[in-house]
Design brief:
Helix content: 40-55%
Structural class: mainly alpha
Largest sheet: 2 strands, antiparallel
Distance between the termini: 154 Å
Oligomer: single chain
Shape: elongated
Radius of gyration: 52 Å
Amino acid sequence: MAKIIGEKKSLWQQVCDEYDSQYPPPLDNAASDTCSVETCVSQYSASKHSPVFHGIMASKVAVDTGLFNDFEPQCSHPALAGYAVAPRPPPQPKSVTPEIIDPHTCSPKEYLENYLFPALLPGMEAMLAQAQRECCLERKRTRFNACDFLTEWLYNKNPRRLEQEPVSFEEIPFVRDWLREHPRPPIPLSLLLSDESAAILIQAGWRGYKVRCYPEVQELRRWQKELREESRDIGQRVQEFWANQESRVGRELEDTSQANRSGVCIRVLSPTPQNTVIL
């Protein structure tokens, strides 16, 4: 800093005074640091400080030896010798009171930004996370229904239902009424099975095929086929058998009635014991 010689100010002093006149005087109280956070030059005075101090916080410290004994010009400026320097803290954000927007009179853009998107965007984020867990990004067809998940998520996250137990998609009242009038087709089993269950079914089918290829199993299967062909009309054969038995018994009864006319007692034996008749 330049010193004043007599009453005449040097050119540097005049420049510094003109610079200081454009800004408010520096604060000397304890609140100066807090107040100066908004700007990096409010405590800086060109007539009192070196330009090196611009934008930093410095405090003079006492040393036991000379100021320049351990000073390294490659790391610092000579004007900072004997000062502790710290970066200025970032400005504190100002608290702004949010403006209350009436949903009935606001514009469509304001309604979307203040009422719809704050509730919809977290639901879509959760939907994408669930879709990734369901491998929707890896397969062409899955059992995951994004609309059903988003409907269930929004219904359970409704501020009016915060103290209620979450319900499944099928238990939502308006969904239950809609599905009652418009039933959905059943989901294919291939979409319901997990990877482990599908692998077990495929492996079981392959092992069964390999077992059926054994010669002993092939012979057994041929015998079962012949047996099925022979017993295919077993019901009809039983009916024909009993029809023949009944017709035979009927003929014997007619012969017996003719023999009774001559006074001879004949005992007729039926194929079934409960139909035995003594004439």
